[in-house]
Amino acid sequence: MKKSVILGTLTVAGLAAGMASAATLDDVKARGELICGTNTGLTGFAAPDANGVYQGFDVAVCKALAAAVLSDASKVKFVPTTGETRFTALASGEVDLLVRNSTWTYSRDTDLKLDFVAVNYYDGQGFMVKKDLGVSSAKELDGATICIQTGTTTELNLADFFKENNITYTPVTVADDSEAQRQYTAGACDAFTTDASGLAATRATLADAENHVILPEIISKEPLGPVVRHGDNNWGDVVRWTFYALVAAEELGITAANVEEIATTSTNPEVKRLLGTEGDMGAMIGLDKDWAKRAIAVSGNYGEIFAANIGESTSIGLARGLNAQWTQGGLMYAPPFR
User: Fold this and answer.
1) pTM of this prediction?
2) What is the rounded CA–CA span in Å between residue 220 and residue 217?
3) CB contact at 8 A, 45 and 226
4) Which of 41, 162, 208, 318 would give a disulfide with 47, using CB separation of 3.0 to 4.6 Å?
5) Do 101 and 59 meet the contact criterion of CB atoms below 8 Å apart?
6) What is the C-alpha separation between 279 and 167, in angstroms, rounded?
């Protein structure tokens, strides 16, 4: 019952925010700053560095958006949100958008009145255990204690998986990834479950990473992506197409290093439309001609952002997998810029 009340409250809040803030683009321009709801700290995706400056895969999307809208990638305020607070922060107008490993689901899209504008990471829920537990499959976790974040899809997925396999578990609820890591390493739970990318990010920060195993089962689909308030269609378009500019740039061979050169030398019609040397696509969404060029110049194309923050050469070590370009057997696919 409590969850129903919370969802109902969020629905009303979402409707109110949608009606009151149907011009987020204008608000961001007037403020001179983008307010991006992010994770409280997930290494590789969004976490403050030693100087307190947020870095990561999701952070790069926010910076690209700030460059597109405000011509300055540094004009971003990062607001950390937990699994339970993130959607309230968006619905209330505390943040302009969320870019923080949030799963696109039916109820979030409809009942919470939110719009997921794209998928920036295709993921799935997994389990991590200590090697000395002697477990090689999630189906062997009968009777286990499992650390799980509240306010997430992982709670429901976990219940479904154990029910389907006729096994039991005891949940150890946590507020965020950092608390989950503390509880898991302290032995408060036998296993930690979340998105597989999150498990890889957590393991990478452990002093004894080699002593922890991510089990083979992926028990759900977790399409993660940027979220905006329902009803603010123009702002949704700005966020959506800024992200797709990064995806298209990778397919078209445009990088942070060559974007200026390609803008002046390419004869490819789509490249010229994307980089503003032909037509005026920016005007269609309330931006100037160079919006996409600036977005790409910040941290590079989608592939560059992936490789630098979470790719196989980083401590997190994620392969592209489903997040490879469609031309490489993955699901990353930008609609045409025309």
Assistant:
1) 0.89
2) 9
3) no
4) 41
5) no
6) 60
